[in-house]
UniProtKB/TrEMBL annotation:
Entry's localization field: Cell outer membrane
Signal sequence coordinates: none
InterPro entries attached to this UniProt entry: MdtP/NodT-like, OMP_efflux
Main location: membrane
Region called Disordered, residue ranges: 106-126
Family: Belongs to the outer membrane factor (OMF) (TC 1.B.17) family.
A Pfam family matched in the record: OEP
Record keywords, A-Z: Cell outer membrane, Lipoprotein, Membrane, Palmitate, Transmembrane, Transmembrane beta strand
Name of the molecule in the record: RND transporter
Membrane topology: Lipid-anchor
Length: 482
């Protein structure tokens, strides 16, 4: 008994350690402060404060918030990613089963006859007659994980689950951002269409006025032709804008797993809808929190963890495997003899020691180490790319803010210029070519203003996505497998 107890204590002590390196969380090496542009004439919208996780609500558009909510529950890519999480969890349960004993119950009947010239006949007939054999029992097998190989397999499987979960969160982040982007682009296209229709109405009035003036003899055929050309030019812009509006509505429908045209009526606008502008002040959070917020960094860390654990699995194959097995049951030649006297059992350990495999285990270990190094490089690359992405989107957000402020002034000046040109043309002090020139300038400035407002909102969405915000709040709502 003392010997058995000593062996048990030794086995438990060995089982407390695991072969292979332990995973150490890598340092993301992020700065402590963001780099913000300093513009005294135009204060920046961004500031270093706690990131708003429900950033889409800052745009003040209930329809946008509703679309994002629906997309996070109905998007097919997100549902597929959630299913892959369940697959990884099932795989983890399968691997973890190696830590527990295998138990099985069996029963059988056979009719046999042995050779009179062969081995001994357990029936006592010496091969002269056939016999029946009834048996049943309980089988057990358990590998003692003395070196921690199985524990490293479970550790790698846990990291694999984390990889799939972070992949799903990355899809969730992408779906929210893409829904916001498509919606903002749609509103931008609708505003561009509305501006074109407004200018077309002005151009048609100018054409009608020139025809009247031609009839009165105070305008020339050239001026009428120029006005008609302006009308035709503006009319030619309408089909592409309407097609883009329909295409963006379909893109939103696809994100919500709806057929083409399903959202067209809900997204249609009689008047130019406002382009979502986002909050007046945009909190960024801390750079040190980026590794916690961005799913791609978290995924790269989990992949590195899995690769590190796989080294331990490979090293464990170099050590002996000890398996405890047992068999307890009944066996008899007659069914009615299956009683206590027919009991049988067998218990004992089995040792498997690798000797020679032609270098297969060594090659597997070297491959595991190389994959771990690759995962470490991938982690560093992911962190660096994320840092660059935040810096680029932050710069784009501030640049679009400055551009939009200048274009707002340009549009106001162009409107004043057009009013003066139309009044002077009515007075006969300028020709119609001046009116057309000013009108085209206004149209160009208005188009750039819409483009700038759209780009500024899109840059803000890209910034929130680069910061990794949004999926945390949606996780709390139980979005698609969370």
């Amino acid at each position: 008994m003392r010997r058995h107890a000593t062996l048990l204590v030794l086995a438990m002590g060995l089982g407390a350690c695991s072969v292979g390196p332990d995973f150490t969380r890598p340092d993301a090496e992020l700065d402590t402060n963001w780099t913000l542009a300093d513009d005294a004439d135009l204060p920046s919208r961004v500031l270093q404060a706690d990131l708003d996780e429900r950033w889409w609500e800052g745009f003040g558009d209930p329809l946008l918030a509703s679309l994002i909510h629906r997309a996070t529950h109905e998007n097919l890519d997100l549902l597929a990613a959630a299913n892959r999480v369940e697959q990884s969890r099932a795989a983890r349960r399968s691997v973890a089963a190696g830590q527990a004993p295998d138990l099985g119950v069996g029963a059988g009947y056979s009719r046999a006859r042995n050779s009179q010239r062969g081995l001994s006949d357990p029936s006592g007939e010496s091969g002269r007659a056939a016999y029946s054999l009834w048996q049943g029992g309980l089988d057990m097998a358990w590998e003692l994980d003395l070196w921690g190989r199985v524990r490293r397999e479970v550790e790698a499987a846990d990291a694999g689950v984390q990889v799939s979960e972070e992949t799903r969160r990355g899809v969730l982040l992408a779906v929210t951002a893409e829904t916001a982007r498509r919606y903002i682009e749609l509103r931008g296209a609708q505003n561009a269409l509305a501006i074109t229709l407004q200018n077309l109405e002005i151009a048609r009035r100018s054409l009608a006025l020139n025809r009247t003036r031609l009839a009165d003899g105070v305008a020339t055929q050239l001026e009428v032709a120029e006005a008609a050309a302006q009308v035709a030019s503006l009319e030619s812009r309408l089909p592409p804008l309407r097609q883009r509006e329909a295409s963006l509505a379909n893109a939103l429908a696809l994100l919500l797993a709806l057929p083409p045209g399903a959202l067209r009526e809900a997204l249609a606008a009689q008047e130019a809808p406002a382009i979502p502008t986002g909050p007046a002040r945009v909190p960024l959070g801390l750079p040190s929190e980026l590794a916690e917020r961005r799913p791609d960094i978290r995924r790269a860390e989990a992949a590195l963890h899995a690769a590190t654990a796989e080294i331990g699995v490979a090293e464990g194959d170099f050590y002996p495997r000890i398996t405890l097995s047992g068999d307890l049951g009944l066996q008899a030649l007659q069914l009615n003899d299956l009683g206590w006297d027919a009991r049988r059992f067998a218990v004992g350990p089995a040792l498997s020691l690798p000797l020679f495999d032609g270098g297969r285990r060594r090659g597997t270990l070297e491959l595991s180490k190389a994959r771990q190094q690759e995962a470490a490089i991938a982690y560093r690359s992911t962190v660096l790319a994320a840092w660059h992405e935040v810096d680029d989107t932050l710069g784009a957000c501030q640049a679009q803010q400055r551009r939009q402020a200048s274009l707002d002034q340009a549009v106001e000046h162009a409107r004043v210029a057009l009013d003066n040109a139309e009044r002077q043309y009515g007075q006969g002090t300028v020709d119609f070519l001046n009116v057309l020139s000013v009108q085209n300038a206004l149209l160009a400035n208005q188009a750039e203003q819409v483009d700038s407002a759209t780009a500024a909102a899109l840059a803000l969405v890209d910034l929130y996505r680069a910061l990794g915000g949004g999926w945390q709040a949606l996780e709390g709502e139980g979005a698609s497998g969370a």
